[in-house]
Specification:
Elements (H helix, E strand, L loop, with lengths): L8 H14 L2 H13 L2 E2 H8 L3 H13 L3 E6 L2 E6 L6 H9 L3
Antiparallel strand pairs: 1-3, 2-3
């Protein structure tokens, strides 16, 4: 890659994978919910979204596998939180550039 580009190709590949991981309405809403609430369990997430538990778990697994959310076990419950609050900025940026 030419030297004038400020980003390395490996960084751009990783960034692309992160963008793919968040590129779903439910996953964007999960990020927003976790930003507002700090920590939620899967039941709270699927009930707030009005989706099936299996669907919520699927989306959480994608976000976890890409390092966007982390999980902390608390007995039978798994509590999810954002690895970095910076992920919430994705929605703020999109809100500025995407027409409703």
């Amino acid at each position: 890659m030419p030297a004038e580009f400020p980003f390395s190709f490996p960084f751009l590949e990783t960034a692309t994978e992160v963008l793919r991981a968040v590129a779903h309405p439910h996953r964007l809403l999960i990020i927003d919910m976790l930003h507002r609430q700090q920590s939620l369990n899967v039941t709270e997430i699927y009930e707030n979204l009005g989706i099936e538990q299996a669907v919520a778990s699927h989306h959480l697994r994608i976000l976890k596998d890409r390092g966007i959310v982390q999980v902390r076990r608390d007995g039978k419950n798994s509590n999810y939180s954002l690895v970095s609050e910076e992920y919430a900025k994705i929605l703020s940026i999109l809100q500025q550039v995407v027409p409703e």
